[in-house]
Design a protein that fits this description.
- The radius of gyration is 25 Å and the shape is globular.
- The protein folds into three domains: 210 residues, MFS general substrate transporter like domains (Growth Hormone, Chain: A); 56 residues, no CATH class; 260 residues, MFS general substrate transporter like domains (Growth Hormone, Chain: A).
- Strand 1 and strand 2 form a beta hairpin.
- The chain is 76% helix and 1% strand.
- Helix 1 packs antiparallel against helix 8 and helix 9 packs across helix 18.
- By secondary structure, the protein is mainly α.
- Strands 1-2 form a two-stranded antiparallel sheet.
């Protein structure tokens, strides 16, 4: 691509465009850095709470603040890229994200850290969609699959390794370096972005046309989506902790989110220059692709949260051991993404997506055979299988989605599809944790109901434990109480394990049931050869 000469809007000839292979890794690293911060701080919460004299519940606002502001800015990033210039906005996002990361690392109190995390999410939210749009525009049609492969390695791998990397940094260094690590990366990226990235002619024309008409921010639309997505994210992040609709806060936030988001859709649909171009969803292929991307985020982050919790809470793994168990899955994604990027130009994307959901579904159903004695290797290889399915989803879904819309709309399309994945991830985490908590209660009640004083099994268990305690110097009435305590711990552990199995089964069945919806997509070959912007 380095030999291509690109015309300017005035008909002049620019210098040769930089190679796609030079642009791609730099842009992908920027996206990776931002997505990583969605999960890297999770395992550091206890250290943050202790260091800043806060409770664990208060410390969770460090996560909520980031996800709320990140969710707000994501759908607006397409409008901002067109208005400010995509390169300028991308560089500004990297610079301010690095500055916000520095402030997070130096925060003297929890309140300051929460504020700086909110700022970090706000200024960094444009990195994901703009990175994807830059890669899409920089790649020729035959290399678009590889463009999405590089982007996919960033945004799918980052949440998978985030907790592992965060745990390692916290254990060996200090929780503040979870945020400070972004600063040198951002400083190194800026000169490369400045030298390599250019706005395409259609984006330059759109920016000039918008400025010629006068910059008019849709304050109503902006207020509606900011309030709606902010409230929705708080509901998803805090719902389980606040007992969902038993909480007045959650009930109010849910109502406010519903009203403002419906109002936003109605308002934006009538605008000639909307902040979020919802009219792209009139294209059936693009709409279905967004649904599938939502479910990709749902399953990806749902399982990424569940597996580390399972091995740490039930099997006694340390965060480092849990990370070692998850890491091979990340390596599988790294290996398979370029392979799928190569295949997507040769195989109908619908078959690749179907294979991805089937692989994930089978892997999740295999996880229902786990118990508290399952070996490290078995869990690790099942995770590798599940992660392999993810590699078959991200690239084909994006390829079909972007082939279905006009390239001039790539920034808006990227904003919408990244918003779908992020909101899907928030729903996945929230529903998985809620099902886990409720399922553990249900199974505990069932198991306790079977423990009766006349049960021969119970009498045998108590006698065995009392004999064991007596052999170690514990006897009398106290040993009977200790035996019942051990029994209760066993019931809690088993009921929690059964709840995890229910979660794994749920995610597996959902993945398999999604396969028929894949065939509502346009054939990928047809999408690539159709006129840009045509409705398939």
């Amino acid at each position: 691509m380095s030999s291509v000469l690109t015309p300017t809007t005035e008909g002049m000839i620019e210098r040769p465009a930089p190679s796609f292979w030079a642009i791609a890794p730099v842009v992908a690293v920027a996206a990776f850095m931002e997505v990583l911060d969605l999960s890297i701080a999770n395992v550091a919460l206890l250290h943050i709470a202790g260091s800043l004299s806060a409770s664990q519940d208060q410390a969770t606002w460090v996560l909520t603040a980031y996800t709320v502001t990140n969710a707000i800015i994501l759908p607006l990033s397409g409008w901002l890229a067109t208005t400010l210039g995509r390169k300028r906005y991308f560089m500004g996002s990297i610079g301010t994200f690095s500055l916000a990361s520095l402030l997070c690392g130096l925060a003297p109190s929890l309140g300051a850290l929460v504020f700086f995390r909110a700022l970090q999410g706000l200024v960094g939210g444009g990195l994901q969609p703009n990175a994807q749009a830059i890669l899409s525009d920089a790649a020729p049609p035959e290399k678009r699959g590889m463009a999405f492969a590089l982007y996919g390695m960033a945004v799918v791998l980052a949440p998978a390794i985030g907790p592992t990397l965060g745990g390692w940094i916290t254990y060996h260094m200090n929780w503040r370096w979870v945020f400070l690590i972004n600063v040198p990366v951002g400083i190194l990226l800026l000169p490369f972005i400045k030298a390599l990235v250019r706005d395409p002619p259609h984006l330059v024309q759109a920016r000039r046309a918008r400025r010629a008409q006068g910059l008019k921010l849709d304050y109503i639309g902006f207020s509606l989506i900011a309030l709606g997505l902010g409230c929705l994210q708080i509901v998803l992040d805090r719902g389980q902790q606040n007992d969902w609709f038993a909480s007045t806060l959650i009930l109010a936030m849910t109502g406010l989110a519903a009203v403002t988001l419906v109002g936003f859709v109605v308002w934006e649909w009538t605008r000639s220059d909307p902040i979020v171009d919802l009219h792209l969803l009139k294209n059936p292929t693009f709409a279905v692709a967004n649904l599938l991307m939502f479910m990709l985020g749902f399953v990806l982050l749902g399982t990424t949260v569940l597996l580390p919790l399972y091995v740490q809470s039930l099997m006694g793994y340390t965060p480092v051991q849990a990370g070692l168990m998850l890491s091979p899955g990340g390596l599988a994604i790294l290996f398979l993404m370029p392979v799928v990027g190569h295949l997507v130009s040769r195989v109908d994307a619908r078959w690749l997506i179907s294979a991805g959901f089937l692989i994930i579904g089978v892997a999740m159903l295999l996880m229902t055979r786990f118990d508290t004695e399952t070996g490290f290797q078995t869990i690790m290889w099942t995770r590798v299988l599940q992660a392999s399915g993810m590699a078959f989803l991200f690239i084909p879904i994006n390829t079909v989605a972007f082939a279905a819309i006009d390239s001039a709309k790539s920034s808006n399309a990227s904003a919408i599809i990244n918003m779908s994945r992020n909101i899907g991830g928030s729903f996945g985490i929230s529903i998985a944790i809620t099902l886990l908590a409720r399922g553990a209660q249900i199974h505990q009640n069932r198991l306790i109901g079977r423990v009766t004083s006349v049960s021969p099994a119970l009498r045998s268990y108590v006698a065995t434990v009392r004999n064991h305690l007596a052999a170690h110097g514990h006897g009398g009435i106290a040993s009977a109480g200790e035996a019942m305590g051990f029994l209760y711990q066993t019931v809690v552990k088993q009921s929690t394990m059964l709840a995890y199995i229910d979660d794994f089964r749920f995610l597996g069945v959902v993945s398999i049931l999604l396969i028929p919806s894949v065939f509502f997509l346009r054939r990928s070959n047809d999408a690539r050869t159709a006129p840009p912007g045509s409705v398939h």
